Amino acid sequence: MRTLLAALVLSSFCATPVISQGQSAIEMGQQHVLRSSVMDENREILVTVPESYARTTIGYPVLFVLDGSSHILHATATTRTLAAARNRAPEMIVVAVPNTSGNRNRDLTPGAGAERFERFFGEELIPWVDSTYRTVPERIIMGHSLGGSFVTHALLNRPELFDVYIAASAPLWRYDSLAYDMLQGLQRAAKADVALYLTIGEEEWSQLRGGVERFAEALEAAGPDMVPNWSFVDLPGEDHSSTSQKTLYSSLETHYATYRFPYFEAQAELDSLGGLRAIEDHFARAASRFGYPVHPPERVLEAVASVYVVEGKHAEAMELAVAYKTAYSAWAEALINRTGYDLLQRGDVEQAIAAFKRNTMLFSDSPNTYDSLADGYCRAGDEEAARKSMLQAVAAAEERSHPRVEIYRTRAGQPCR
Fold first, then answer.
1. Any idea what DSSP says for residue 112?
2. Which helix (H) or strand (E) holds 386?
3. For the chain, where do the domains classified as CATH 1.25.40.10 start and end?
4. Pairing with 410, which of 46, 298, 348, 375 sits 20 to 30 Å away (CA)?
């Protein structure tokens, strides 16, 4: 959907984890320092990846956040909450761009400074993100206050940079060339097929409210052919300091309204929705809408798997795991393992062993698969086969320097006790 605008120019970077004091569940992100030729300075970049990132092979949309030090925590929490809340949005990579000392106005104010900052995004930051992380071609930018003015400027002057523009409480009354930029900018934005989410707080001062309201009126007057994908929300009871979090949450939830699949937890509920086929068709349509591959979320597949295992549909559970083992390998291995143990619990030892064997073939580098197969052999009374399986577990653990290697070695000596 997007093409790289220029070669990446990064003379050096380093990465260091940065933890916010008092934060345990959400980090401030992985810190990178990029040498920017465009800006002629080092730029700090903070990145948080989805909780599932390390165990999948899929790509993720990217949310770029201005005033990054102030907004990375709530942006990360918001994206994770939306993904966890019955898949109101896909998981996302969050790229927060902190300001350099004393230069916030220089970079974010519409005009020459904003133009140079947009070059930094297009020629350096975006290509670096795409080359460093597994991304899909959907980029979202969120800015609050002066950051919202920058978002508006980028929408009108470089709409190809992002797919979704979120501007909260932007002081557009100070955007001197707004009317001029809109003359050509709205046509460019329409051609790029971008989305704009614009908000203001009910309790913000009149000058700021007036600027945003006039911009919204101009968008309305331009008509749907010129600006087809935009919304303006006046947030009741909110002031300038409180609009950023609600804006981001509501904007992402609105943008991904068609992404969510209805909730289910029992076979009858799943059947009423059309079963697994309906889920796969739903996310295939989402892929067509968004223009990049969209896999059914891991949480939705897990709900299907739970239904299958509870209902004793072990073959279907195995097929599900195999179908998604490339995208969600850790989950697929765990599902086959769970299927095998459920078969053991139901007394079908032969089929349990077959499931465990399948897992060792699909995930031959995982010591846990051989450990589980040994459990199956022990239930069948075949201690020698269990010992051989445990020796394979030891070998796989040694190869990976697995933390449970000593436990596997001990069990290999007495596999069924």
1. H
2. helix 383-400
3. 267-413
4. 348
Which CATH architecture group holds 15-255?
3-Layer(aba) Sandwich (3.40)
CB 328 within 8 A of CB 299: no
pLDDT at 143 over 90: yes
pLDDT in tens, 198-220: 999 999 999 999 999 999 999 99
Beta strands in 49-184, from DSSP E residues, in sequence order: 60-66, 93-97, 135-144, 164-168
Report the alpha-carbon distance of residue 176 to residue 129 in Å, rounded. Answer: 32
List the 60-66 sheet strands across, edge first. Answer: 15-17, 30-36, 41-48, 93-97, 60-66, 135-144, 164-168, 195-201, 230-235
Q: What is the pTM of this model?
A: 0.91
Architecture in CATH of 267-413: Alpha Horseshoe (1.25)
The ranges of the chain annotated as CATH 3.40.50.1820 are: 15-255
What are the tokens at 363? 């995930």
Q: What is the token pair recorded at 191?
A: 């051609």
CB-CB contact of 63 with 92 (8 Å): yes
| Structure confidence at residue 11 as a pLDDT band (50, 70, 90) | very low
Cβ 108 vs Cβ 143: under 8 Å: yes
Q: What is the pLDDT of residue 5?
A: 27
